[in-house]
Amino acid sequence: MATAKKKAAAKPARTSKAPAAAVKKPAGIACPHCGKALDGIRPVTAFCRQDKTVVAELFKGHEGKFNVFECAGCGKDVRLDLALVYRDEEHASLIYYLPPADRTTIAAAEAAIGRIVEQLFGVDAKSEDVPDCRLTLSLQEFIEKIALLEDGLDDRVVEFIKYHIFLRNEHDIDPQKVTLLYNFTSSDEEALEFVIFNRKTGKAENATSVPMTLYHEVKDALLTDKELHEEVCTLFRGRYYVNAAALF
What we know:
Elements: E1 46-48, H1 52-59, E2 68-70, E3 77-79, E4 84-88, E5 93-97, H2 106-121, E6 132-136, H3 139-150, H4 155-168, E7 178-182, E8 191-198, E9 204-211, H5 212-224, H6 226-235
Parallel strand pairs: 1-4, 5-6
Antiparallel strand pairs: 2-3, 4-5, 7-8, 8-9
């Protein structure tokens, strides 16, 4: 995956394994077009940053073939919206995606991820032995978190900046109507750019950006400014779901 921003130093790798069993593979899937069972398919449910082909297909979005299979009965393509987990040993991180079928509320999704983490690392595991875990509730969010990780950007800082963009532009950039997603294809290393997607149509409508210096100022302040640190912790009080839009 080609990204534009310069890489930050990776955190020391922790020993962590997220086996495919952490996300259950579906059973008895039928084609939504003709009803024929999709036998013999091998959908992706868990992968890591070394799986370059899988990551590339994921980043192709709706034009790609990520978890898309041709039905032997009618010949039509079937896209499977499945729970996913992405593992990055270098950055000691796990990113989860839970589709609508696997959750009811954000709180329920948080609880589900909590159970998976406990299953993998144990209830009494020390914090330094547990990777940073993130929960996402859409494929777009899932892709964004991976891109931020690949580009060495702290997603808490990015979401905090998004939050203030929403506050400053409540009439033009309404969090109830649009979604801001990190533009990992941008070639401008001096700017942190976001694409503005219409929530109703799912289409990109515009873009906005802030100087990359602002990102670094906020990140540095998190380490030295106790008040700012507490504000960020309060805003993103959910343990795994870090998303500015959820604050409105």
